[in-house]
Amino acid sequence: MFTFIPRRTIRRPVVVVAVLSVLVYFVAFSPEFGLFPQSPLRSTFSSIAGTTKSHVGRATTVTRTQFLRITRTVYAPDATGAPDRLPRILEDDDEIDGSLPKLEKHTYRKDGLLELNPRGPHPIFELISRAEANWEAKMNKASKTLEEACREYERRYRRLPPLGFDKWWAYVQENQVQLPDEYDQIYDDLEPYWGMNPTDLQLIQRDWEAHADSYTVGKDAQTDSIVMVNYTLPGNVGVKHELAEGAFQIMELLEDVEEHIPPFRAVFSPHDNPNLPTDFELREMALDAAASGRFININTPPEYKLHGWISACDPLSAAWRDPIKWDSAPPPRTKKTFIYDHREAMDPCQHPDLLVNHGQFLSHHTGPVPHRVLIPQFSYCPTLLHHDIMAAMPINWVEDIVPRSFDPEWEEKYDDRLQWRGTNTGMWHDEDTLWPLSQRARLVEWATNAYHENVTVLPATKDNKHAVGGGVLVRKAKYSSSMLDIAFANAPLSCAPKTCEKLKGVFEFRKAQDYKTAGKYKYVIDVDGNGWSSRFKRLITSNSLIFKSTIYPEWFTDRIEPWVHYVPVQNDLSDLFDSLVFFRGDPTGTNAHDDMARKIAYAGRAWSKKFWRKEDLTAYMFRLFLEYARVMSTDRLSMFYNHGTPGSRPPPVDDTKPPQAHAQNPDPEAPPIPVAERRKGNRKYVPEVVEELSDNEYEEDDF
Questions:
Q1: Which residues, 6 or more positions from 150, have their beta carbon under 8 angstroms from its beta carbon?
Q2: Name one Pfam family in it (predicted).
């Protein structure tokens, strides 16, 4: 480079100083890679999950002339910066000239994720405002009279409500149950059975009562009481009592309304995960038959599906289209995404990575063979790949955090780290399983290991008037130590002896926290265990902001709004740092949105107190059993509630069609609902291991 510069120029001290300054600048702020060896902890996970490489994007240089000619670096919207250096000013050329930038829009994908546009504002501003509008619209649209509720029912489901709907409505009104129209989960669960002959259904149901580890609740025509009519539970008295607890809880929930529920028999699985994987072809056959008023022939079922989990998916879905590497972690995401529709984000058919990073699926590797018939069994937490009927259970339900001193007000919670304590449940741990890829192992590894890695984080912008950029590269150790308090509690469980010892070497198992200690944290994350997290009720009833990662829809999923009542987190945790930084700021607290965090935390508590009471559970189960009793009845024609308002009519009698077809559509001229609309249209306003009891540990006491 000196060929073109006069030699005497080089000898000038001022030139030498300038050149050295430039060199020092680039050396000081260039990203450092490969200077730190991997920790043994990280190497353990790398053997299964692999390693990822980071890169640093470019920054642009902008020259501006005022009194002097000044050149400075401005981070381009799609650039990443040097480690540990969040840009203090996020601007483009227009901003330097005094005008606001022209912001671009983010992409809302059909799979429930918002895809970041670096030239748009920080997406969380938009996600919150959008969610608030959706929630307000849903609340305003709720039916206020029985007539309105019946009309809305017919609009959504194209049939008259079930017999006893008026009694259900009276209970809803008397107990101030909110959102009386939002029961699409019941429709989704039961609609396939409308395409089956009720005589066949009753035979299947009776046979399934003999299924191992189940209990059956019901009532007959001679009594008003709901009782446990059958069970096939283990002989051990303690285990039997534990597994049968759900039956007693159901009977207690329905005690005040059981006289209004027609006779029925319902088989329940007592375990905390589902066991009926779905055959997509079979379910579609049943749905199509239901829509056209026909019955499927259960004696000519589809062929056995040997494709495992993806047998539950549409052959045109991503799960079929994108090859799945069943023995390794999925590659890191190339684009930043955030959840806007939590149910869609839980769908492995749209997000096949879920099949290799959650214990529910990893426990069965590529997946089981689905049954060749649809079985009407109730479970506590189905996934979108199962056809278990969802029940609203009061397991570990709490009315409030008591004493209230254990849950200080937001301003009095002095620890602003993200907190989690729990056991290493989620799947069986041994040398033959991919436990390092399960949800809880990944969470703790993400938080406590790989301190020498760099991670790309979206900086928290002051407002939504500036482009957020593609994120900046930061040293993970700087963030993890000051922003996270995440660890396993007590000692390893759900593991073979050798693997238990290995877990002790890989992870730090800390002392469990009591509720008083846990109450000091502003931010808490909730993740799945063996099944759904039963601690969520207690967590969201607190004054803390809850981050929730799950693959299990719940009975209230249509009755809660992410970004209004809690912060949704993807199962791979790729958005967790970004969301946390947005609310609490970087390690120094820069651009923290504490007020927005407080608002969501308090909204979550208010929602829990108003929408998740015992009365709300009763209303759900009351309506569920009204619908279930109807679809299982051999006299479906007598099981409709005709409210007698103009435009409604009793089911016409036509002996040429199956009984359920007579009331399929209140308007006989109305066309069948397309499958896609049936599935998604209703929800949218803008839808034995370590010890005998280990499989039924609901993990409430993980603190």
A1: 160, 161, 165, 641, 643, 645, 648
A2: Glyco_transf_90
Q: Could you give the 3-state DSSP secondary structure of residue 99?
A: coil
For residue 391, give the nearest of 189, 551, 218 by alpha carbon. 189
* Radius of gyration of the chain measured on its C-alpha atoms: 28
29 secondary structure, DSSP code: H
- What is the C-alpha separation between 586 and 346, in angstroms, rounded? 29
Query: Looking at residue 273, what DSSP letter applies?
Result: S
Whose CA is closest to 616, among 407, 375, 392, 329?
Answer: 392
Question: For residue 660, how far is the Cα from the chain centroid?
Answer: 34
Find the helix or strand (DSSP H, E) in which 265 lies. Answer: strand 264-268
- Give kind and range of the element (H or E) at residue 567: strand 567-568
Cβ atoms of residues 57 and 78 within 8 Å: yes
With CA atoms as reference, report the closest residue to 559 among 110, 276, 172: 172
Beta strands in 444-564 (DSSP E): 454-457, 472-475, 484-489, 509-510, 521-527, 545-549
Q: 339 with 374: CB under 8 angstroms?
A: no
For residue 651, give the 3-state DSSP assignment: coil
DSSP, collapsed to helix, strand or coil, labels residue 252 as helix
Q: What are phi and psi of 395, to 5 degrees?
A: -60, 125
Residue type present at position 295? F
What is the model's pLDDT at position 46?
Answer: 53
**Helix (H) or strand (E) run with residue 108 in it:** strand 107-108
- Tokens 């191992």: give the residue: 212
Give the DSSP per-residue string, 578-626.
HHHHHHH-STT-TT--HHHHHHHHHHHHHHHHHHSSHHHHHHHHHHHHH
Torsion of CA 237, 248, 186, 129, to 10 degrees: -100
Burial of 78 (0-12, 13-18, 19+ CB in 10 A): middle
Six token digits for residue 602: 């308090």
Peptide bond into 403 cis (omega under 30): yes
93, 77 contact by CB (below 8 A): no
Cα–Cα distances in angstroms (integers) from residue 93 to residues 87, 98, 172, 325, 648, in the given order: 15, 9, 58, 44, 63
Write out 204-247 in H/E/C secondary structure: HHHHHCCCCCEEEEEECCCCCCCEEEEEECCCCHHHHHHHHHHH
Sign of the CA dihedral with 153 first, then 158, 160, and 161 last = negative
| Nearest Cα to Cα of residue 52 among 352, 476, 582 | 476
- Exposed e or buried b per residue across 164-182, where buried means at least 16 C-beta atoms within 10 angstroms of its C-beta: bbebbbebbeeeebbbbbb
Closest CA to 591 of 98, 89, 116: 89
For residue 51, how far is the Cα from the chain centroid?
A: 26
d(CA 576, CA 73): 28
CA 182, CA 172: separation in Å to the nearest integer?
13
Angle between helices 614-632 and 165-174 (to 10 degrees): 180
pLDDT tens readout for residues 21-30: 555 444 444 4
Please, how many CA atoms are within 13 Å of residue 499, restricted to the half-sphere of its CB? 16
> Would you call 93 helix, strand, or coil by DSSP?
helix
Which positions of the chain have pLDDT values less than 50? 1-5, 9-10, 24-44, 48-97, 646-701
- Reported residue count of the chain is 703
